[in-house]
Design brief:
Chain lengths: 877, 331
């Protein structure tokens, strides 16, 4: 017959390496590292690192129902065992015979009426006291508190009557309990309250939880509930108690004992054990019958006391300590964090540590922090100068770029890529595109041709679509009279596209010479040669290559390429063609490669050039505009646009322009990089209205502003806002604060605009001596004086429309910027709480040394009310 | 004091000795296979006449109707008195004695028929479901009454019951005093850890179902004076056993538990012929004088007769008391 006992497990309260498994007998184990020299043959592996050694077995106490370990250091390893007949026996494990607990071991505490002992608890302070919770008996108490040091009862059971109680060995029997509680009810679980060791929390059959105070046992506080099993006090929170009933756990706050503060989600199967983690705040582990998982409830962030109006924040998760077997019981380790041992019904044990949830936080400045258990880890970027730009986090890049005024150069737009670090080809392409667009618009403005203006910002894709009247020419190779068999296409739109690509500057005449010169200057020999070749000037191409080879650090191989180039023949079956078309693939430089591809391809079939992804989009597009016909060209552009959009490649802005397509492209770029900065600045350049209304664009802009705020780059934020409001007048914020005159109630700044008029009005009546100029310290509306500064006692007032120009030399630099504004030091400031205030400068210096309001008898701590008042911007003004 | 109306709807049945074999399967299932049945209230009492089985409707489904099964027609509800712990009266007596004055007597006055079932743990007072309003109306003065429904205790108020008060108020001629039989055997009231039920299964089956087979060493003389009485109940997970000392010797000593004083009880069987279920005041008749003398008593009603258990040392005075009572009433 299989025994009905499922093994339970108990950690020693003081020896972190010992625990007891109890089923039909008690077995003491020691836990140690696996594979250590002292490991003997009999050890049981508990985990990869640990193993258990059986130290002792005690089978003296049959019919065990519950076990409790003596809480004090001495005598160690003393256990109280509650039996099915209600007797409580003290026993010990693995102790030598002369140990201190010798006289206690074997002592039995016998209730008047035999019934099952359900639970045992040692008093944490008065460790002689042992509370036993028994089943119900008609006339007996269900909670007996025994004093283990009490002498044997004088009125020991008469031998004649003891015939039914089993043994007559009554020498160690104690029958008189110290206290008796809970008549007419069973006690299913109990615990001592750590706040007051005289108080005991009992859970009875009649669906109530009751708190008894041993100093006055006739009084009790009680509450009716079904959750009467397994009452246990949170070791980190003496007012928090968990109890359960079937599948439901109730959490109680003893200070609000009327009802559970909350109940946890009900489990389909009945619970068998609920235990607070002793090493981690607010972590409750629960186990249900026949289950192989332990469910954990993290109440760390649940406020106590707990209000009715909020939902509790409880994080629920489950762990599976051993994959197959079901769990019979578990026990938290008393000191090792989040560690437990679980035992299966067939006594297979597992040492297990619950992995703590990791909470992670990014800072706005690239560093990453995460917390796991009691450890806090920080990961910061290697900020050394040596760090390659490409490896830097986008946040670092954006910070650096913000500091170098990236995006703010509205005159030489292309320079922005230099401000961005100048090492990103996509940004370079983007800013050049925007530059060319702007340049073209400006040219148009001079010519009063505004109908094309919107077209230019809509990208080459839309430009070529509108193309009409294409002409086809067949030119000779320059410097030779051989006719090429390559047709070249011209139209107004195509030349506009070429302008955007930067190949030609303006006008209908196609002169790439300035562009070639600039490329030569930058040392882009191969690119220049390719551009020259595509303009059917082999001689120029060869010349460029020669120049490149002879330049400083030049590549001598360029000469070889030039030689190969000079051998060009249009003979279809020549050896040159054959060799070039196969060997070109081995060329490492993409531009050289496409040059030979161009020379060896059939007319109209330039895929080797058009789809050479190593070549910049603008060059390929320019090439396409020259050599693809009206049906091929839009198809190619569409295809390329689609690729660019998919990849989020900023070079594609050339094709999409700042249209909805462009926003789509930018969206995938932002998705890929997170670079809201570039996205914001780029989209602000769009023609007014259209793209800026797109919610995505607004989102990028707002995020970029938030980012600047988070970095405390408030000046940068302000600069950005100014920049933005210039380009997008609709974004200009409405005034949010007005200063109104105490006398006439008009806004003093609003009235400013009316000064000349009013002044004239007054002068008509001859009231004022100076009709056109009123004092800044009086209300422009009613001319009454404005309030006084609390510190200098001067009337406040800021010249709004006139230059503050006190003429100090050091301020001159700022004059351009501050032309229309008064100096900050003279600004109105006031506390929203006490309404006192004065000149901003005075207030700032006052609060540098004081915390209270400068007005006497006002105790307002104005500056402390301002949470951001003590923050310092991290960008210098 | 609280009175709980428990959440069980009970049927009182009797299985004749000859028909027992038809019912061994459901009985063994109800006793030993707790996980296979949803029956929460089960009591089986063997008397020389028959087997009385009191069980809830879940358990009742297991019993196939036959000529050997007699079923009392009504549904019975168990009541239970909870003394709240702090009402530790001066009386040291236990059992029906404690509730004789507060429950049994008032119900008898209102002519409510009760069926008593004492166990090791407590005393159940079974009343007919139709009498409930009268019961509540009668006892609401003395008790806080709670009705248990789905695990919750719901307070019951008297206004639910005020019209029912008159119903049983009909005047009935004063109850007859029944003859009392006092057998010689000593009884003990015991309990058992339900988990150890399997360990005593064979003994229990033997004692319950094979008690009629002749036993070695049991003399014929003794049988005349002793009465066969064995009660087993399994109610809400609690086991209670009432048996005589002879039967008790067949069980392993360390498994059954009882009071540390190990007291023994003598029985008074009430009724010369089967009592039926309608007569009122029988329990009151016995418990009243016991309460007056502060003598503990258990009381177990069966299908035919009622049985009171009183402490061994008090049997003489109880016998005298009951005989005096018989003489007092003019027949």
């Amino acid at each position: 017959m299989s025994s009905g006992y499922k093994p339970d497990i108990l950690w020693s309260p003081h020896h972190a390496d010992r625990y007891v498994i109890c089923d039909t007998e008690l077995s003491l184990y020691r836990i140690g590292p696996a594979g250590s020299p002292e490991t003997k043959a009999g050890t049981l592996p508990l985990s990869e690192e640990t193993a258990a050694t059986l130290l002792a077995i005690n089978s003296d106490t049959p019919y065990m129902k519950c076990v409790a370990w003596y809480p004090k250091h001495e005598p160690e390893c003393l256990l109280a065992v509650g039996q099915a007949n209600g007797r409580v026996v003290l026993t010990s494990l693995g102790q030598s015979h002369n140990s201190k607990c010798k006289e206690l071991v074997g002592k039995e505490f016998v209730p008047k009426h035999a019934r099952q002992c359900n639970t045992l608890a040692w008093n944490p302070v008065d460790s002689n006291w042992l509370a036993a919770g028994l089943d119900k008996h008609r006339a007996d108490f269900s909670v007996l508190i025994w004093d283990i040091s009490s002498k044997f009862s004088p009125e020991s059971v008469p031998a004649e009557k003891a015939r039914l109680s089993g043994d007559v060995d009554s020498g160690l029997l104690v029958t008189k309990p110290l206290y008796e509680l809970g008549q007419n009810d069973a006690c299913l679980s109990l615990c001592w309250l750590p706040r007051d060791h005289q108080k005991l929390l009992l859970a009875g059959m009649h669906r109530n939880l009751a708190i008894f105070d041993l100093r006055n046992t006739s009084q009790k506080t009680f509450v009716n509930t079904k959750a009467i099993q397994g009452v246990t006090v949170d070791p980190h929170f003496p007012d928090r108690v968990a109890s359960f009933f079937e599948g439901q756990v109730a959490i109680w706050d003893l200070r609000k004992f009327e009802k559970p503060v909350f109940t946890l989600t009900e489990q389909p199967k009945p619970l068998t054990k609920v235990a607070w983690c002793p090493t981690r705040m607010g972590l409750l582990a629960t186990l249900t019958r026949d289950s192989n998982i332990i469910r954990l409830y993290d109440m760390q962030h649940t406020p106590m006391p707990f209000g009715d109006e909020v939902e509790p924040t409880i994080i629920e998760r489950s762990v599976q300590p051993c994959s197959e077997s079901i769990i019979s019981s578990f026990a938290w380790h008393p000191s090792a964090q989040n560690r437990m041992v679980v035992v299966s019904p067939n006594r297979v044990m597992n040492d297990f540590t619950v992995f703590e949830r990791i909470s992670l936080a990014w800072s706005s400045t690239t560093s990453l922090m995460w917390a796991c258990g009691r450890h806090l880890y920080e990961c910061t970027e290697d900020g050394g100068q040596g760090a390659a730009a490409a490896d830097k986090d986008i946040a670092t890049k954006m910070r650096e770029r913000a500091q170098s005024h990236y995006g703010h150069d509205t005159v030489q737009v292309w320079r922005n890529h230099v401000l961005a670090g100048g090492d990103d080809p996509q940004l370079r392409s983007l800013w050049y595109t925007l530059h060319f667009m702007k340049q073209y618009t400006e040219n148009l403005e001079q010519k009063q041709q505004s109908n094309k203006q919107s077209l230019i910002y809509s990208g080459i894709k839309n430009i070529v679509k509108s193309s009409s009247g294409t002409t086809e020419t067949r030119r000779c190779w320059s410097g030779s009279d051989r006719q090429t068999d390559v047709p070249r296409y011209h139209s107004e739109e195509r030349s506009l596209a070429l302008q955007l690509c930067g190949w030609i500057s303006r006008g209908p005449d196609i002169d790439v010479e300035p562009f070639l010169k600039s490329l030569e200057q930058e040392g882009e020999w191969e690119r220049a040669a390719a551009v020259a070749l595509f303009n059917l000037d082999i001689r120029r191409a060869i010349q460029i290559l020669n120049k490149g080879a002879s330049a400083e650090k030049g590549d001598l191989n360029l000469n070889v390429v030039a030689m190969a180039l000079s051998g060009y023949t249009d003979e279809k079956n020549s050896l040159w063609r054959e060799m070039c078309s196969s060997l070109r693939l081995q060329l490492k430089k993409a531009h050289l490669c496409i040059m030979f591809a161009f020379l060896t391809s059939e007319p109209g079939a330039f895929d080797a050039v058009l789809y050479e992804s190593r070549v910049a989009v603008r060059d390929r597009v320019a090439f396409a505009c020259m050599f693809l016909n009206d049906t091929q060209l839009p198809r190619y552009i569409d295809k390329l646009t689609y690729e660019m959009k998919e990849a989020g490649n900023l070079e594609g802005i050339l094709l999409t322009g700042l249209t909805k397509d462009g926003v789509d492209l930018m969206e995938s770029y932002v998705d890929r990089t997170g670079d809201v900065q570039t996205a914001s600045f780029c989209m602000l350049k769009g023609s007014p209205g259209e793209v800026l209304k797109d919610p995505r664009v607004q989102c990028w802009i707002e995020n970029y502003r938030n980012l600047l705020d988070a970095w405390r780059f408030w000046h940068k934020r302000a600069e950005f806002d100014i920049h933005r409001s210039k380009l997008d007048p609709s974004s200009k914020p409405l005034p949010q604060v007005f200063v109104s005159c105490n006398f006439c109630g008009k806004s003093i700044s609003y009235s400013c605009s009316a000064i000349p008029h009013q002044g004239r009005g007054f002068s008509q009546y001859g009231v004022s001596g100076s009709p056109t100029k009123s004092k800044v310290t009086s209300c422009p509306g009613c001319r009454k004086p404005l309030p006084r500064c609390a510190l200098c006692l001067m009337n406040m007032g800021t010249p709004v429309s006139s230059c503050p120009g006190t003429g100090k030399a050091d301020e001159k630099a700022d004059l351009t910027r501050d032309k229309k504004l008064a100096q900050f030091n003279n600004w109105f400031t006031w506390c929203h709480n006490c309404r006192h205030g004065g000149h901003a400068g005075h207030m700032l210096s006052w609060f540098r040394d004081h915390s209270e309001c400068p007005v006497s008898a006002c105790t307002c701590k104005c500056m402390q009310l301002d949470t951001t008042g003590n923050l310092v911007p991290s960008d210098s003004a | 004091m609280d009175l709980h109306i428990l959440d069980h709807k009970l049927r009182v049945t009797s299985i004749s000795k000859t028909g027992l074999q038809q019912y061994t399967h459901p009985l063994i299932k109800l006793i030993f296979l707790r996980n296979r049945t949803r029956c929460k209230f089960f009591s089986l009492t063997e008397t020389p006449e028959n087997y009385t089985v009191v069980l809830d409707e879940e358990g009742f489904k297991e019993l196939q109707p036959s000529e050997h099964l007699q079923v009392e027609g009504s549904t019975w509800l168990p009541l239970n008195v909870v003394s709240n712990g702090n009402a530790s009266s001066s009386s040291q007596a236990v059992g029906v004695t404690k509730i004789a004055k507060s429950v049994i007597a008032p119900l008898a006055e209102q002519h409510v028929s009760v069926f008593m079932l004492s166990t090791y743990q407590t005393d159940f007072i079974l009343v007919r479901e139709k009498d409930l309003s009268v019961v509540v109306g009668t006892l609401v003065e003395e008790f806080n009454i709670f009705r248990e429904e789905g695990g919750e205790s719901v307070p019951v108020h008297s206004q639910d019951a005020c019209n029912g008060l008159q119903r049983n108020g009909r005047e009935v001629p004063h109850a007859t005093v029944h003859p009392v039989l006092i057998p010689k055997n000593q009884f003990c009231v015991m309990s058992l850890d339900p988990d150890t039920l399997p360990a005593i299964a064979t003994t229990l089956i033997d004692v319950l179902f094979y008690s009629n087979s002749p036993k070695e060493g049991a003399s014929v003389d003794q049988d005349m004076e002793c009465i066969k009485f064995f009660s087993f109940s399994l109610i809400d997970g609690y086991v209670s056993l009432v048996m005589d000392t002879e039967a008790q010797r067949q069980f392993p000593a360390d498994l059954l538990f009882t009071s540390s004083s190990g007291e023994l009880w003598r029985m008074a069987r009430i009724g010369g012929q089967p009592l039926g279920f309608d007569e009122c005041g029988i329990v009151a008749q016995i418990s009243q004088p016991l309460a007056d003398s502060d003598i503990s008593a258990y009381y177990i009603s069966t299908f035919s007769f009622d049985h009171a258990l009183v402490p061994e040392e008090d049997i003489v005075s109880v016998t005298e008391m009951l005989q005096a009572q018989r003489k007092d009433i003019p027949s």
